[in-house]
Amino acid sequence: MARSGSEHVHVAIVGAGFSGVGAAIRLRQAGIHDFVVFERGDEVGGVWRDNRYPGCACDVESPLYSYSFAPNPEWSRMFSPQGEILDYVRRCASEFGVLPHVRFGHAISEAAWNPATKRWQLDGPRGQFTADVLVAGMGALSEPWVPGFRGIERFEGPAFHSARWDPDAALDGQRVAVVGTGASAIQIVPRIQQRVGQLRLFQRTAPWVLPRRDRAFKPVERQLFANLPITQKLLRVGLYLRHESLVLGFRNPSIMRVVQRQALRYLHHQIEDPQLRERLRPDFTLGCKRVLLSDDYYPALAQDNVELVSAGIRELVSNGIVDTEGRLHELDAIIWATGFHVANPPFAKHVRGRSGESLAEVWRGSPTAHLGSMVAGFPNLFLLTGPNTGLGHSSMLLMIEAQLELLLGVLRELDGREAVTVEPDPAVQARYVDQIDRGGKGTVWTAGGCASWYLDQTGRNSTLWPWSTHAYMRRAKFERGDYVVDGV
Ligand code: NAP
User: Fold this and answer.
1) What pLDDT is recorded for position 141?
2) 208 lines ligand 1 (CB under 6 A)
3) What is the number of domains present in the chain?
4) pLDDT under 70 in the chain at which residues?
5) What's the domain range around 470?
6) Where is coiled-coil annotated (predicted)?
7) Whose CA is nearest to atom 12 of ligand 1?
């Protein structure tokens, strides 16, 4: 029974990024129309709506970083910029009829399974809802994280996270710090270096950087993509196979030494100053952290107005950052390119299962889920891009689409057999997690000698799928015997 005053839907999807919009499209295609997408923002796009920093683009080629069912002949470049990716998600949401299902400005702040009604109860500032099935599409990289440096509140200039870019902040000719050298920072640095007066780049760990070799698609290629769609499909297959083959290197760190030699040659070629080169030389196995692709990062660092700071950050003061060597870096603005809450996603505190415990309480800092999607004790909850579905080597869209097929399998079970609840058998889930843990042993992610966001506070890889995407696609099928199905 619905709570009085609350609206009931069959499926509630939270988040309208690539995964939430994809879920909505696949539901409609499967003939399921009783669903709502709750989106806290005022448009679709998820991370591609939120990340608007200069230089923001995808580091996976666009023909592969798109839905398989919606090829886009309009991509301007091999690695298209954020604006085009956002337009693509918007267009897909519109053309596939998703938009009428989306409630914009509707954050869901609490979700609790009600064992009496066998429904999810959803609460948010805009009201209460109930749902038979809850699909969490909030994304793994949606909650910005800024380290709690001493005195952070003292700094008087603009200071903002890369994913909360302030377009009004005056950076031209100013003394600006970028903190962090991950995938976001290496896109930002080359773009602001020409505008700012002085750039201080705070590097804690030197990343591995390989050339991106981006290029614009020629008009003739775009015409071919539009008029002969098989050509874009073939390109996608080629890119897919190239990315899939990379997994061999990630699983066998010795292979990565060959790629490291290529990366070091690239560093030597780009940076003349031997001292700077030495400070930019990574000290872990390539692939242990996300491999960064850039054609303009090293050239930007070689410019006179850029200083690489390898000392740590001791504290912030009103006019800058004091490093661990006691040097004051006077600054007008600070950009935190310091990443996201990943292994400890804030939403986990707010999703409560049958026992009343939250996901965060059950996970205790190390998220696990059967097939990265469903959790014992949390009936009818489906996590998109959940634990161990991330990738270090290919397009997340491949994993999202495989998960969506699994979701449809779960919904077919519920709708076709008049079942009320589905959740993984705890023993099956435990066996699966054990396989994942064993599969990750010896890979570059766990044995590569780095501290990355792929590893959680217990040191476990709870983020990445440790095999090929093909292996996940084969695995992510609904097998009835692996689940506890109630109400048949
Ligand atoms: P990130 O990879 O987590 O990088 C955060 C950076 O901040 C790291 O260099 C880290 O140093 C540094 N940092 C963190 N705490 C620090 C501290 N206390 N003092 C100094 N430095 C500190 O974050 P991100 O660059 O935003 O990227 C996150 C993920 O988003 C990527 O891995 C990728 O999956 C995705 N992304 C994708 C694209 C794309 O093109 N598709 C673009 C941007 C982001 P350490 O290395 O020492 O930890």
Assistant:
1) 87
2) no
3) 2
4) 1-5, 488
5) 7-44+98-143+341-487
6) none
7) 180
